[in-house]
User: What shape does this take?
Amino acid sequence: MTNTNNSLNSASSKASPKCWPILPAAGVGSRMQADRPKQYLPLHDQFLMDHTLRLMLSYPKFEQLVLVLSETDPYWPDSAFANDPRIIRAPGGSERCYSVLNGLRALEGMAAEDDWVAVHDVARPCLHHSDLDALFSAVENSAINNTGACGAILASPTRDTMKRGIKQPDGTITIDHTVERDQLWHALTPQVFRYAELKQALEFCLQNHLEVTDEASAMEQVNKQPLLVAGRSDNIKVTRPEDLALAELFLAQSLNQS
Assistant: This one.
């Protein structure tokens, strides 16, 4: 009877892959026109990045996370999470795709091939746990039902009329044509894929000089089809100065509701 129970326990553990968040945070955020990278701008008396780290580390599926930082980052020691043992540091790369790959390599020997990795923009501090629930429910159901989907990303359906622009010789941009918005989505994060599959896809794309704008695009380049999971529209990415005020508003609303 003991041997049977041990076998069942072993099978159960194999059926429950771990989930590893990876947060690229090595960018300089030049479009913010600030004196420091955007992840270190103040937001409700904390670093913007600290809000993101707190929401990720408080999610039940995440025991640890990988934070990808510039090796010359002078601001990290002032973070509230600088000495948190749950954070695994990885060195930043020249572009996001290299940083994410460095984050994946930092998990070698810890992550199993079929573990999930969730890559999230550190400049998206307004993510809700309910969106994480929906994302993991989608990938887990896909794995159970063997639908063939390689993973999933949070996304938002396009609501506005979309125009394809064309640059004129004088530098101005005019409308070339209106793009049909049906089935157009704004890609958000997190983006969730199997550890080994994402690592292999990124390595393949970089070795073959293929364009990688996000993790889903790397999977697309190797003929995979990630799921689109509708997420909240307040999961904004702080990119420009006006975004910071909007993030502050959304966080205030979230705090008032909790």
Remarks:
- Residues 156 and 186 are 5 Å apart (CA to CA).
